[in-house]
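Two records follow; treat each independently.
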Amino acid sequence: MLKYILPIIFLLPLCSTHAQSGKVYDDVSMTSKILDSQRKFAIYLPPDYETSQRSYPVLYLLHGGGDDQTGWVQFGEVLRITDNAIREGKATPMIIVMPDANTGRRGYFNDIKNEWRYEDFFFEELMPYVESKYRIKGSKRFRAIAGLSMGGGGSFMYALHHPELFSSACPLSASAGPLSEEQMKERLARRYDDNTDYPADVMQQYYERHSALFMMENLPVDDIKSVRWYIDCGDDDFLYEGNSLIHIAMRKREIPHEYRVRQGGHTWTYWREALPVVLGFVSDAFHQY
């Protein structure tokens, strides 16, 4: 009898380990009054979410231009990478929310006419919705933001606009916004076919709110320092200049941050390699120091 029991005993740990997997739902939706539409998001729930009663920290993970809420799921392999990081003790169990910023209009910000108010939707509708529907610890210490490319820009702006809400921000290969007002005008004309001659004060205000470089150089230092920063951009990335200038501006103002330049370009290979580091970095704030 013993010879049949022993193999079963040895298999039990393997079965238990295999069962420890999180879940991803990539077609969840909510109603937005601000955007007058149904807005989709994907969500990662950690392995013990269904068996525990506790609440979890949250990472808002933003996709890049051309993707939607499924980008980090399909190409970024968020389920596999996060499960592995948690299993190996490199990251704490957390909930990851991945919103869609590609439907209707592309981008994470309110437009210059304030007709498409995506940023207002994010803070006034999406965050309250997910943090009440799921067991999320809704405080600064247990909330982080990260993203790639367009989403890296969103990570910069959201954390700089609301440093009271995020403990960590991790822009990856970030589109960090215009480096000058002239560049902003060119982008408006090219991206939205918008050649409107806006009043100078309107252009100035919009530039100051959507240039990460300007904000890093001009916002109160203590506000910026209240966020832990991890900035990562490949040495062959076409967005390298903006990220480098932000790093230099932060050094000049003695703002603590991690700045990484690794070999690579603007690719999912690069971002998949970055994600485990991001998960560990935000977990450092989620944990007790």
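The next record belongs to a different protein.
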Amino acid sequence: MKSIKLIECPRDAMQGWERQIPTEQKITYLKQLLQVGFDTLDFGSFVSPKAIPQMADTELVYRALEESNSPTKLLAIIANLRGAEKAVTFEKIKYLGFPFSISETFQQRNTNISVEEAFKTVEAIQALCLKNDKEMVVYFSMAFGNPYQDVYDAEIVANWAKKMANIGIKIIALSDTVGLANAEIISSIFNTLIPAYPNIEFGGHFHARADAWLPKIQAAYEAGCTRFDGAIGGFGGCPMAEDELIGNINTQNLIDFFENQQIDLRLNLSAFRKAVQESWSVFI
């Protein structure tokens, strides 16, 4: 039976929220999430506060979480070497996540650098992680296609995966950034990459309308994906998405799906229900 990792992504849910969420409210919510038993909590990001004002208090939030004895590992998003240099100084942060785009247009929009420059940044951050006992998670933004007419095919994705493997990246999360993916392309990409790179853990970070998530998760799971990102309530999603209804996959849907597969996620469902209730006051 497959062992499934669930990654809860409140950072992704919060980052584009129009109302500034008070720091103490974030802390209360994240502390509750740490009691659920997720594999990883994507809790914040060390990026420019001008670019993402909602994440300006990530260090304050971390300080409140670092004393937790939860087995859940902390992941922080970084977009450049400066952010990574700061993130590695925090002991309880295990993973540094970097948004690497298969689309040149989106890489420029998201981080103001080219894809080639982004890869050099990944190399530098990977070296930093290895020196500081951290692990890098590379997110392949636009992994299943893009709306910008940039050249895209499965071979491009595979070539970048090979380059990541060559520098020792162990986790790659394939991101359906603007919700374009369908079951066919998801199946094709995962079935290509997973056998080719057995030392890399490939994850799925999907965005979808509330009524369109199931085929995506089903396709990824059947192709051998064992790492799935979600966000309670399905909040969040890429600020570049033109459709505000396209958010993250609701974590409740992921739990229901894997329960139907008779997979024990080893979650504290009582704590999860409390987190859902807490989310109602956060995302209002």
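Discussion point: The longest strand covers residues 93-101. How would you locate this feature using only the token line?
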